[in-house]
Specification:
alpha/beta, Rossmann fold, 2 domains, 6-stranded parallel beta sheet, 12 helices, 15% strand, 7-stranded parallel beta sheet
Length: 370
Amino acid sequence: MDPIIRRNVVISAVNLRKGGTLTVLRDCLRYLSDRKDLHVTALVHRQDLCDYPGIEYIEIPWSIGSWLKRLKCEYITMDRISRKLPETDLWLSLHDTSPRVKAKRQAVYCHTPFPFMKARARDWRMDYKIALFSLFTRFAYRWNVRSNRFLIVQQNWMRKAMADLLAVSVNQIIVAPPSFHPMAIPSLSPVIPPSFLYPATADVHKDFETLCEAARILENRIGKDRFRVIITVKGNENRYAEWLFKNWGDVDSICFHGLMTREELTKAYGEASCLVFPSRSETWGLPISEFLPTRKPMILADLPYARETAAEASRVAFFPVTDALALANTMEAFLYGKTERFKRVPSQTFAPPYAPDWQTLFNLLLEDNG
């Protein structure tokens, strides 16, 4: 029997340490851990964040210290590492940038939607890093992008946007939706009064202010005891959270709950009457996917990411992003049972290249690369 010829794959992900991007890294390495035909080396912040058998790890913890260190890592350190490794068949960067490396083929996974978000003056005051990042990533995506055989995004709208931004063919951009493991959401009796839930971190682009102002408008119309708005902001996490609490902490219908554990969030999904998701910028919008199996209504920002993530949901109303009055009107319609605003979201179709799972993705990335 001929021995298996193992191809060499490198995954670089030194900046992925939390949230959805870390989940992508873990899912990727979990899949590659079972591929006996591949020799996989992972460049990571820390091995214990994503430790799977059969993977060789190189830790680079210092790269997160600043953008200058990150750039040094991407364009100097990784080049040196690539020249010491056995000949690399595929180098996949899982975090937006295209490093300078020696490899037969490169690809880059593009998570960040910030290049397509217009920063406001308030964003600079509340969290200049996000506003600066929205500008910086427009240039970071361009650096060395021509070295990639493929770019990978999670949604079709981002494929089109990236093609325009980088002047590359859509045939070079693979749409690969993230893997999703449904939560076991309990079926609970309706809570009185009806509640609107918005689970998100206290980041300025999450647009909590639109929901908070909508709650104030609605409370002034129908009273504070007719509904509740539950947000996962406490009010002391950062400058943005403090500003939210200062301006809307006196709105009795708003519950400043703070971040929830997974168990608390599962229960909150079961108890909530309706999900509200006003975020101005998302790669995916995970709470929409998590809430969708409940078949309960959702009120979402009318943006491409939300329409793709909510595809095939049966009861969804969209409102113009940042329009608090329109959101208040939609919330009121829900409370009074006016269902004409809540409609089924059409299913999505995807032109190739499309990868619904990791196996399909790596088959595309490694084809004709033997």
